[in-house]
Amino acid sequence: MKRARMMLIASMTIFGTIGLFVRNIPVTSGELALYRAVMAAVMVGGYLLVTKQKLPLRSIGKMLPLLLLSGAAMGVNWILLFEAYKYTTVSVATLSYYFAPVIVTAVCPFLFRERLTGKQIICFVMSTIGLVMITGIGEVGKSGTDMIGILFGLGAAVFYAAVILLNKYIRGVEGIHRTLLQFVAAIVTLIPYVALTSGVTLGAMDGTGWLCLLIVGLVHTGVTYCMYFSSLKELPGQKAAILSYIDPLVAVLVSVLLLHERMTVWQILGGALILGFTLWNEIAPKEKE
Q: Which of 6, 20, 182, 255 stands the most exposed, by the fewest C-beta atoms within 10 Å?
């Protein structure tokens, strides 16, 4: 249990630093998403071979349409998140992106006929107020593109929420097997998109760009996803959900301390509302003995 907790903490911390490296990769968001998916698929596939984990082909066959759809949504999610980093600060893009659990909470009653509790309604309202504080009251950056970045971040949140919701319908396929297939589906989706838009521009990258690309693809995605799903097998869902909030907190620290990006007081308060109330929503009350 302790080893699994440390693996999850490490993976969430690594996830939180991705914006720092993305900023130094001079390719389009579509290209970056494609290269990330390719390297991650190779890495996770290698991990499954080394650990002798076989793919559940019978279950995969039944769930293939959902796996392909969720993989495509994952690819679009990455593109939009990387675009958000280009237009606004890493902290604001990440906090906008972490509105995804709020979207899931709002949509579940319609898709799964789940009744919203009073606590969930409060969390939804307060998180939405937090988002308004980030988008509507925060000062616009010098380039006037903060709102565009926030909208890209929210778009990424919508597609991430779609991945979460589609995964609720997928049965009989474990997390890491599911993720490998989603990476492959993302590759299939992103290849024609990149071919029709930017094409391959790797020749223009310098040494720093190549190093950052390898780190994002191999470490932030391949290694970290393996650590993440290995730890989930041993940890209770609630504990894993709570530890996942290390990711946005690290992202904010990286933005402010390493990238020297400014956050207004309103944006800080808005981010605290989003993270605080979505975290509270994850914490289930203890059952009475």
A: 6
